[in-house]
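Input structure tokens:
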């Protein structure tokens, strides 16, 4: 795997397809009438001599030329027509490279990605270097020394993965204490659904042997006692996450540009912050109003703020303000399948911490509370995005939808575009319900690579192979997207294309061969379908006149390169509304 795929923000400085035949000429003929009149006030730019893939329709279509002007696409079609009608245009010779619509991030956590810059990177290969607990401890020790962190100050780490550690377990509070006894420490699991705190951090949060696990969470214990061992799962970790955000808040502005550069490096022109507090929304809007956004940023407001957000007359939904908008509301229904907190109807096949029998994970919210949230959202036309991994959590979503429809008297198939996020192990009957209810599932095929082998062990081959069933939903005519969930896996959309097409695990095993899709289908999940998910199909997602000039140029063509090599494709240039926001260094 090319190492360039997995560079985190902290490491950043701020011939035509034979399979398509004459598609280029068809595109030119069909769109000649869409030529916009060139004005003297803004120079047009003609892109030509490359694989210009429009992403329109169910089959690939190519054009000979694309013209941008005033931040929008002015024309897509024949090169001659572009040259005849834009005589004073600048020209960009693509030199047989590939031009696509800018990638749209269906789901990640922009704010958490930014916060990783102020934390210790504990990721396992190929993202990082931590493959055993001793290396983790030495990294923590070195971080304190290298950053001159005084005793008593908080230290945070992120990205550790116990399934990739030699010990095959979480670190304990005592192990962290052995190298950082004088600092409160919290280490966030790669899933984002749990973490380990040392003794000082537990004390700071008043988590003791007398503490009860909160609803939807678990305080793991030292075996044979009530003493916390440091592992905090789901809602039990929330106090530590609030502390993390509070500690790193003063550095948000410092990290903001670096985070945008990280997304732009991978061709992303629209990013998402997958769960945003009111304070963070105000911060993002301030950055936008000060002209600091290079890309568009879509926020999902936290469901705990739903009442306040709906009551706030100045709060705007689904409306860009200087490149930032709050699209809808995020609900968390369950946890992580690799962390064994995802909520299933059938039990895990391997031991689950603090569970003796029938260990099926746990919901993060009660059915009653979810029902109530759906009703409020439906009454206010508020788009919902619901984190769900296990099929029992997906059942909760469908029940909440049916309850809210009944309570509000609305049509069950109204165009709400409710987005079940991850929905990795949805059953066939649940997929049929997505279609019936006009839901737009956002899948997560990167799991096939990073944890496919783990899922086979924990869930069995049948469930593991049903992971993110893109081929099935495509045949059913369900619009779907595919995401990275960064910080869980790197945001790189082309890697997500690779995992959707190949579904190869770390050990080279194919996870669900029948659910592999074509490169074109995988590209739709991060372009046209992703624009649809955000109600932005009229302005983004395809190369068509009148849409924003959000573009990405690749060094190779994903449709013609060997499927196994898609992960090695590099972004040459990222363009947002006609302006270059990333240029690959000269090699």
């Amino acid at each position: 795997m090319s190492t360039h795929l997995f560079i985190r923000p902290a490491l950043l400085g701020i011939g035509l397809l034979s399979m398509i035949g004459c598609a280029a000429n068809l595109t030119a003929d069909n769109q000649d009438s869409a030529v916009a009149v060139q004005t003297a006030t803004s120079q047009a730019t003609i892109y030509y001599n490359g694989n210009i893939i429009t992403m329109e329709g169910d089959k690939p279509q190519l054009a000979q030329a694309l013209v941008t002007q005033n931040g929008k696409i002015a024309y897509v079609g024949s090169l001659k027509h572009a040259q005849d009608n834009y005589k004073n245009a600048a020209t960009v010779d693509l030199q047989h490279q590939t031009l696509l619509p800018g990638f749209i991030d269906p789901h990640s956590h922009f704010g958490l990605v930014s916060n990783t810059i102020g934390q210790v990177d504990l990721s396992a290969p190929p993202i990082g270097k931590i493959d055993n607990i001793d290396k983790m401890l030495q990294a923590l020790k070195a971080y304190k020394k290298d950053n001159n962190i005084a005793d008593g100050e908080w230290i945070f780490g992120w990205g550790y993965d116990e399934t990739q550690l030699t010990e095959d377990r979480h670190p304990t509070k005592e192990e962290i204490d052995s190298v950082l006894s004088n600092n409160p420490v919290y280490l966030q699991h790669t899933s984002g659904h749990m973490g380990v705190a040392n003794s000082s951090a537990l004390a700071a949060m008043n988590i003791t042997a007398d503490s009860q696990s909160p609803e939807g969470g678990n305080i793991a214990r030292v075996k044979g006692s009530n003493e916390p061992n440091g592992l905090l799962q789901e809602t039990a970790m929330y106090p530590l996450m609030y502390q993390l955000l509070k500690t790193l808040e003063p550095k948000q502005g410092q990290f903001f540009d670096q985070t945008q550069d990280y997304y732009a490096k991978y061709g992303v022109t629209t990013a998402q912050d997958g769960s945003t507090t009111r304070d963070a929304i105000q911060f993002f809007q301030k950055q936008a109003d000060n002209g600091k956004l290079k890309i568009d940023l879509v926020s999902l407001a936290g469901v705990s703020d739903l009442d306040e957000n709906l009551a706030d007359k100045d709060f705007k939904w689904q409306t860009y303000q200087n490149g930032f908008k709050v699209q809808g509301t995020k609900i968390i229904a369950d946890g992580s399948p690799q962390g064994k907190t995802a909520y299933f109807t059938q039990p895990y096949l391997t031991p689950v911490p603090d569970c003796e029998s029938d260990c099926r994970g746990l919901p993060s919210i009660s059915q009653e509370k979810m029902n109530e949230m759906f009703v409020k959202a439906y009454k206010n036309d508020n788009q919902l995005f619901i984190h769900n991994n296990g099929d029992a959590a997906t059942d909760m979503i469908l029940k909440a939808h049916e309850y809210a429809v009944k309570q509000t008297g609305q049509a069950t198939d109204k165009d709400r575009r409710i987005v079940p996020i991850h929905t990795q192990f949805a059953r066939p009957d649940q997929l049929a319900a997505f279609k019936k209810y006009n839901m737009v599932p956002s899948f997560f095929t990167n799991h096939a690579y990073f944890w496919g082998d783990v899922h086979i062990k924990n869930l069995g081959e049948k469930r593991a192979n049903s992971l993110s069933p893109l081929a099935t939903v495509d045949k059913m005519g369900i619009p779907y997207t595919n995401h990275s969930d960064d910080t869980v896996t790197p945001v790189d959309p082309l890697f997500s294309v690779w995992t959707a097409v190949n579904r190869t695990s770390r050990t080279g095993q194919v996870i669900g061969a029948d659910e592999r899709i074509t490169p074109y289908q995988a590209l739709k999940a991060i372009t046209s379908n992703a624009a649809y998910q955000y109600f932005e199909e009229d302005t983004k997602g395809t190369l068509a006149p009148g849409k924003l000039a959000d573009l990405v140029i690749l060094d190779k063509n994903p449709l013609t390169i060997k499927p196994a090599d898609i992960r090695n494709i590099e972004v040459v240039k990222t363009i947002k509304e006609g302006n270059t926001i990333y240029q690959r260094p000269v090699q």
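The two ends are 19 Å apart (CA to CA). The longest helix spans residues 391-408.
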